[in-house]
UniProtKB/TrEMBL annotation:
GO molecular-function terms, A-Z: magnesium ion binding; phosphatase activity
Keywords: Hydrolase
Organism: Blautia fusiformis
Annotated NCBIfam families: Cof-subfamily, HAD-SF-IIB
Protein name: Cof-type HAD-IIB family hydrolase
Pfam family, one: Hydrolase_3
GO cellular component: cytosol
Keyword DNA damage: no
Length: 292
């Protein structure tokens, strides 16, 4: 019997508009009313997750920054697994030979190296790749809601060691560029370091965490600490940073119809796409089979 549902956010729980559809919110409420515990397992940090959940009444647990932070329904930090500063510096040195943008994600702000102009240009590249049409002008992007949101959450630093002065743990190193082959090369190179976990949530990025900070193992440890067993958990995801969940032997591992092929091959089930309320559909199937 499924007693816990853990869902990725972007590309899974959220539609392409980066919002949770009313249909999905209703399904989650039905599950919670039936005694099922709902969790999000996302690459976003806490602030980013709350941005997506702020207009909902969803109460849940949080597996954040791809597993680097865990919070309970009271939003209290249960566990942190940051990347040590020395390891951050080592990764950054490896990346210097590549024309990529690098962001250090923490539980509060996103940190970037460079001048104010260089950071602004990096934000524009990020929005052009992930949020807006690649042909949009710089001026249009600067005036967009996405630019204001990202810029407001960004802090500039002069060097890696400056992160120590910020006294906030680095949960993830986010790397992006328009060259897919180069990013794959970077992922393979960084993946040779046994202290790191490397995955991607989009084709144009790589995400680096401390090796213990992966959604699947962290979720397993957390649900077991709450008294649940793996066979009582359903997980849902769509991208490679969900592979550690989908590939584990949870009770139901569900890939979205829009998931990358590797996730579909690893999953036990496939639901509808994120734009067709695939999470809601999977929840309804569970409730129906359990007679709730």
């Amino acid at each position: 019997m499924i007693k816990v549902i853990a869902s990725d956010m972007d590309g899974t729980l959220l539609g392409d508009d980066h919002k949770i559809a009313p249909e999905t919110q209703v399904a989650i409420k039905r599950a919670c009313d039936a005694g099922i515990r709902f969790m999000v397992a996302t690459g976003r940090n806490f602030r980013g997750a709350m941005d997506a959940l702020k207009d909902t009444d969803i109460t849940c647990d949080y597996i954040l920054s791809s597993g680097a932070e865990v919070r309970n329904p009271q939003r209290e930090v249960v566990k942190r697994t940051p990347i040590p500063i020395d390891l951050c510096e080592e990764v950054y040195e490896e990346l210097k030979e590549y024309p990529v943008s690098v962001i250090f994600f923490t539980d509060r702000y996103d940190y970037r190296l460079g001048t104010k102009k260089e950071i602004e240009e990096g934000i524009i590249r990020q929005i052009r790749l992930f949020h807006m049409d690649k042909n949009d002008s710089d001026e249009k992007i600067r005036n967009s809601a996405q630019f204001l949101q990202i810029a407001g959450n960004t802090r500039g630093i002069s060097d890696i060691r400056s992160l120590e002065e910020c006294e906030t743990p680095v949960y993830k190193i986010f790397i992006f560029a328009g060259d897919v082959d180069m990013l794959q090369e970077i992922g393979e190179k960084l993946g040779q370091n046994p202290e790191l976990a490397v995955a991607s949530s989009f084709i144009l990025n790589q995400e680096v965490t401390e090796v213990r900070a992966q959604k699947g193992p962290v979720l397993k440890e957390y649900i077991e600490s709450l008294g649940y067993t793996m066979d009582e958990v359903m997980v849902l995801g769509d991208s490679l940073n969900d592979y550690s969940m989908i590939s584990m032997d949870f009770g139901a591992t569900v890939a979205m119809e829009n998931a990358v092929p590797e996730i579909k091959r690893a999953a036990k089930y496939i639901t509808k796409s994120n734009n067709e309320f695939g999470v809601a559909y999977a929840i309804d199937q569970v409730l129906e089979r359990q007679g709730k």
